Amino acid sequence: MNPAESLKHTKWECKYHVVWIPKYRKKSLYQGFRRYLGGLLKDLVAQKECKILEGHLVSDYVHILISIPPKYSVSQAVGFIKGKSQLYGA
Q: Which CATH architecture has domain 11-89?
């Protein structure tokens, strides 16, 4: 098991299992962009000081296990990732 992360006054281990489905579930979308989206998601997650521990870009949905520091809410981090990936992925 991984040791707990630490901030200035806390030790934490917050992992979240996140699955989201694109609006139209176009299977052709992920065939050409799978590698590009993987790198893009890693870059966006790093901007929020998070880590992707495990992830899959399946043909019609995104499945990730993400570690988010407690200073960010889950909805804030995931909303940022989904919003920015939509802008850069299009």
A: 2-Layer Sandwich (3.30)
